[in-house]
Design brief:
two-stranded antiparallel ribbon; 372 residues; mainly alpha
Length: 372
């Protein structure tokens, strides 16, 4: 599972502030301290009067956001610049975020220069100070109690505090590294709307050649009637050999719906004969040889994880107040067009106008993204 747009500090910077340190570190000779957010951490920026100020890193003020009718899980409210160096605002971008401090940098320092990792607030505040919460939302992190499911999985499983994006930039180069091992030299999305392709073999093509099978599952259409992965990596689907199986040799009956019941009962260790599902199920073949895996590791942590999950997720905002989201506006708009519209609109009026343009002629609108 590969997600995006969240850093270690944003989700897990305070993971071990309570509940004790990790049980062990790997490798044994590595630093014996979790590299999260240090106590009292701040980010520097110049205020409106040109004075340098230090702004503290704090947990997301959930109560305040809920009172405002906003969703605490959608933080920060606007995307920080994701490109290594923004093509629109000279100087802004990941280069400035990791090598800047209260002052902006726009050129790469000499190779080997240690990153200051202090330019995040300055880079974000420059453009977002007039938005909700004055741009200070870039300094907010999730406390473990605010994301109990993720925090519990991290504490009872494993977490890396030294796993980095292959390229400190946007989506497509990093997705490409995860599937094909290269971004083909790109240090940013080729186009603003990220409609592009990496027409090279993927890891799934290699696995298919090694005798393994795979499948591609999706919910949203990205572009040209295809999901993001299929469109962006066109050779991938030729590597998804066809998830074909029949009843095992010696079975008197084929698979049918009762095979699912028998498989689950067997997995749970129940007595098939006395389970009370009538006559067909005990005679049906099970999926044992089709779906095989070792659940030992998952079972070992199950009790601890479930206990932590009992706290539940973040509470929902008040139903009587609108959320600060645009989901309703983008109903029926392809994901590539959503990304383009959101990135090129600075006011709600501009956004509404572009959505109207899309709905007027969808094919023409999407064709313009590819031609950018």
């Amino acid at each position: 599972l590969m997600l995006e747009n969240r850093s270690l500090d944003n989700l897990f910077g305070g993971l071990y502030t309570a509940g004790g340190p990790p049980l062990r570190f790997y490798p044994a000779g590595s630093p014996q301290q979790f590299d999260g957010i240090p106590s009292g951490a701040t980010l520097p920026a110049y205020d409106w009067w040109g004075d340098l100020r230090e702004y503290p890193i704090v947990p997301i003020p959930v109560a305040q956001l809920l009172a405002d009718g906003n969703d605490p899980s959608i933080v920060p409210w606007w995307d920080p610049t994701e490109e290594y160096l923004s093509r629109f605002d000279t100087g802004r971008g990941v280069l400035n975020q990791i090598f800047g401090d209260e002052s902006m940098v726009s050129t790469e320092p000499p190779f080997g220069t240690p990153p200051t990792m202090l330019g995040f607030l300055q880079d974000y505040w420059t453009a977002e100070t007039g938005t909700a919460y004055g741009g200070m939302d870039i300094c907010w992190t999730f406390a473990p109690s605010q994301i109990p499911n993720l925090s519990s999985a991290a504490r009872h499983g494993a977490i890396s505090d030294a796993w980095f994006a292959s390229v400190p930039t946007q989506t497509n180069p990093n997705r490409a590294y995860s599937l094909v091992g290269t971004s083909l030299g790109r240090d940013a999305n080729l186009r603003l709307s990220a409609v592009e392709q990496f027409d090279v073999p993927t890891i799934f093509n290699a696995l298919t050649q090694a005798g393994k099978s795979c499948g591609l599952y999706f919910t949203d259409t990205w572009h040209a009637g295809q999901c993001f992965t299929q469109y962006t990596f066109p050779q991938l689907t030729s590597g998804c050999g066809e998830i074909v199986f029949r009843a095992p040799d010696g079975s008197a009956y084929p698979f049918d719906h009762t095979s699912l019941i028998k498989t689950l009962l067997g997995w749970a260790g129940a007595d098939i004969g006395s389970a009370g599902f009538f006559d067909r199920m005990p005679q049906a073949p099970a999926f044992d040889d089709v779906l095989s895996r070792d659940d030992t590791a998952a079972a070992d942590n199950d009790a601890a994880i479930q206990q932590s999950f009992a706290g539940g997720p973040l509470p929902a905002p008040a139903e009587t107040q609108p959320l600060r989201t645009n989901d309703a506006l983008f109903e029926g708009v392809s994901r590539s067009s959503v990304r383009h519209i959101a990135a090129t609109s600075r006011t709600p009026a501009q956004m509404v106008a572009k959505i109207a343009e899309y709905n007027c002629d969808r094919e023409k609108f999407e064709a313009s993204l590819v031609a950018e």
